[in-house]
Write a structure and sequence with these properties.
Thi_S; ThiS/MoaD-like; mainly beta; 65 residues; Sulfur carrier protein; 5-stranded mixed β-sheet; 31% strand; Ubiquitin-like (UB roll); 11% helix; Mopterin_synth/thiamin_S_b; 1 helix
Length: 65
């Protein structure tokens, strides 16, 4: 299925948010996620199913000030 990840068209085989994060190498990483501009808390990711054309944003925390 083709989705957009951080602005880039990406082909994924998974259809749930946790499985897509695993597939993209973010499985155990502490990241923030949004699907179609809606923030998805880590505790709610298991309930999110992605569809072709969805837009996924993955943001990793950074140190600094």
């Amino acid at each position: 299925m083709k989705i957009t990840v951080n602005g880039e068209a990406t082909e994924v085989s998974a259809d749930t948010l946790p499985a897509v994060l695993d597939e993209l190498g973010y499985g155990e990483a502490k990241v923030a996620t949004a699907v179609n501009e809606a923030f998805v808390p880590a505790a709610a990711r298991g309930e999110v199913t992605l569809s072709p054309g969805d837009r996924l944003e993955i943001v990793a925390p950074r140190q600094g000030g």
